Amino acid sequence: MKSYKGRGVVLHTLKYGDSSMVVYLLTDVGGRRSYMVQGVRSTRGHGSKLALFQPMFTLEFEGLESHRQEMHRFREVRSGQVLQSLPFDIRKSTVALFMAEVLYRLVRESEPNEALFDFVWSSVGALDSLQEGTANFHLWFLVNLSRLLGFFPGNGYAEGDWFDVREGLYTPLQPAHGLAMNPHDARILRDMVECDVRCLAEIGLNRRERVDFLGALLGYYGYHLDAIHAVRSVGILREVF
Question: Using alpha carbons only, what angle is made at residue 227 by residues 222 and 230, rounded to the nearest 5 degrees?
Answer without folding.
Answer: 100
